[in-house]
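Students often ask why inverse folding is considered easier than folding. One informal answer: many sequences map to the same fold, so there is more than one right answer. In these notes we will look at a single instance of the problem. The structure comes first.
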């Protein structure tokens, strides 16, 4: 005579399986977003560096001097 599994235990196993899948899905989403943020940070750093170089080359030697009437 084989006993059937307890329905409450079966329901708990189903819930745990769903939660495990949800955790894996969330972990994948976070890892993907982290990679995107890392790429965006690298692009931002490169653009900032390029902007500063262009800014320096566009207006070389501008000095803050007093106006002639001073």
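Output (designed amino acids):
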């Amino acid at each position: 005579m084989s006993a059937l599994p307890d329905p409450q235990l079966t329901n708990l196993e189903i819930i745990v399986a769903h939660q495990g899948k949800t955790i894996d899905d969330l972990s994948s989403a976070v890892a993907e977003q982290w990679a995107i943020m890392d790429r965006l940070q690298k692009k931002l750093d490169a653009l900032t560096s390029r902007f500063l170089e262009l800014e320096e080359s566009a207006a070389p030697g501008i000095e803050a001097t007093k106006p002639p009437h001073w």
